[in-house]
TrEMBL record:
Protein name as catalogued: OB-fold domain-containing protein
InterPro entries xref list: ChsH2_C (IPR002878), ChsH2_Znr (IPR022002), NA-bd_OB-fold (IPR012340), Thioester_dehydratase-like (IPR052513)
Domain (ChsH2 C-terminal OB-fold) ranges: 57-121
Domain ChsH2 rubredoxin-like zinc ribbon: 30-55
Protein's organism: Variovorax defluvii
C-alpha cells in the first residue's frame, strides 16, 4: 500500500485551525461537551446531543476500530495521482465519534471490520500534520 500523502489544505476556519493545531504539540484532541459529556467530530459550535455551546477540546487516546474502508485505485483529483492506490477508512474512536482518515502500514488482505487501530500523526507540510491510522 502506498503511504505517500499529498497535502490538500483544509478550508481555513477557526474550528478546523484549532483541530489541526493540537497535532503541532503532539496531541490528538476532539471536542467534548462540558454539559453532557458527548464527544464530537467534526468540530462544531454546538453540542449535537444537548444543544450546549459549552464545548472544549479534550485529548483522545488515539485508539479505534476499523468501521469501514475503501481502496482508491483511481485518483479522484489529478494532484492525488502519485498517491494511488491508497485506503481511506472510517475509524470508530474509543471515545465514540468516527473519523475519516487514511490507513498506513498494513496489507490490504488483512483489513477486517473491528480491526484495532492506533493513531500515527503524519507530517504533510511545514508545521502541518494529519491523523493517519495503522494496525495496533
Amino acid at each position: 500500500m502506498n503511504d505517500k500523502i499529498t497535502f490538500i489544505a483544509p478550508a481555513p476556519s477557526k474550528l478546523s485551525d484549532e483541530f489541526y493545531s493540537h497535532f503541532l504539540n503532539g496531541n490528538f484532541c476532539i471536542q467534548k461537551c462540558s454539559a453532557c459529556g458527548a464527544w464530537h467530530h467534526i468540530p462544531r459550535q454546538r453540542c449535537a446531543h444537548c444543544g450546549s455551546f459549552d464545548l472544549h477540546w479534550a485529548a483522545c487516546s488515539g485508539n479505534g476500530e476499523l468501521f469501514s474502508w475503501t481502496e482508491t485505485l483511481t485518483a479522484p483529483l489529478s494532484s492525488l495521482q502519485e498517491d494511488v492506490p491508497f485506503t481511506v477508512a472510517l475509524v470508530q474512536l474509543e471515545e465514540g465519534p468516527r473519523l475519516v482518515s487514511r490507513l498506513s502500514n498494513f496489507d490490504p488482505p488483512d483489513l477486517a471490520l473491528g480491526m484495532k487501530l492506533r493513531l500515527k500523526v503524519q507530517p504533510v507540510a511545514d508545521e502541518f500534520f494529519l491523523p493517519v491510522f495503522e494496525p495496533a
